[in-house]
Amino acid sequence: MPDLLPRYGTATLADVLPSLLHAIGAPLDDRPPAFTLPPAQAAVLLLIDGLGHELLHAHAADAPVLAGLADAGPLTVGFPSTTPISLTSLGTGLPPGSHGTLGLRFRVDGELLDALGWSSGRRDLRDVLVPEQVQPEPTVLERAAAAGVEVRSVSPLEFRTSGLTRSGLRGGRYRGVAALGDLAVEILSGADGPGPRLVYAYHADLDKLGHLHGPGSPAWRWQLRQIDTLLGMLLEALPAGTLLAVTGDHGMVTVDRITDADAEPVLQDGVALLGGDPRARHVYVHPGATDDVLAAWRSTLGDDAWVVSRDEAVDGSWFGPVPDRVRDRIGDVVVALRGTAAVVRREAEPYLSTFPGQHGSLTPAEQLVPLLVHS
């Protein structure tokens, strides 16, 4: 069994925005919130990409403001513990199986969709796999705005019309930013005014440096210190009556046991498409080859991975409830890496394969994120 299965329906990233809406007196329905938060006129959620619960505690001295906040978590993020899945769970309030964004790269209508770029190789797929059709469920941001909440999304300028934004984070007013300075300005102005108000803000650079240099590296720690300084300044400047919550979309591990699927013929036999990322792979097989592929991947990876069939992953609630419409988006074989192992593709994914920092699997280091609260 995996180290940590997501706690769908009780304490996951999908439960955060509905709980914040309860706190500002604008619940989406009559269900009780997953987290009891202080009442407020406005709520700000700052999502720091790559801020894992274990990483924050290990480097609390670099982030005294963050570490000093009350933690309503830790939360589990869902599987795979990768940005497109986590952000779509956050945005829709649904587990991955219900919203259908199921991997960094996953199969949709025969295409291997890269959910970050909404592309396949260099092909832009936004007109072929329309984001609002790939993920048709209404988002929490849409529902809140329709109910009269003043909703603002604060994210990098280049993500305004991305497939991922359109799919999992559509709704409200989008305010594009370029750096920490205008991120802070947009957060503060979005929280100021008559309520109820909801601000969702996203910062990417901690994750970027974790991938490039490894989580806990000097570069990563300097970035954490900058974020902590920003947060301290925000706490002093937030309008009265504002609830601030900070979370992450996954943690990260430094990998050191590498298997290259592009160089291992046994991992290619019977395989039609190989999706996912180095810590969580979707293996799509040719008809009739599932048992052989399952056996080959189990034998090759051994104790470095949990290797299961699609049915086993679904029955084990790796993705939460999975409706029939998205079931074939999951690999015929699903691979979650253990410890510090990774399955890379140096030929097909040359850039991604070089990263020392990776995430996506079912370990506490990747699954757990904090939910830090200030009011």
Automatic annotation (TrEMBL):
In terms of Pfam families, this protein maps to: Phosphodiest (PF01663)
Task: State any single GO MF term.
Answer: hydrolase activity
Q: Can you name this protein? A: Predicted pyrophosphatase or phosphodiesterase, AlkP superfamily
Superkingdom per UniProt: Bacteria
- InterPro entries to which the protein is assigned, alphabetical: Alkaline_phosphatase_core_sf, Phosphodiest/P_Trfase
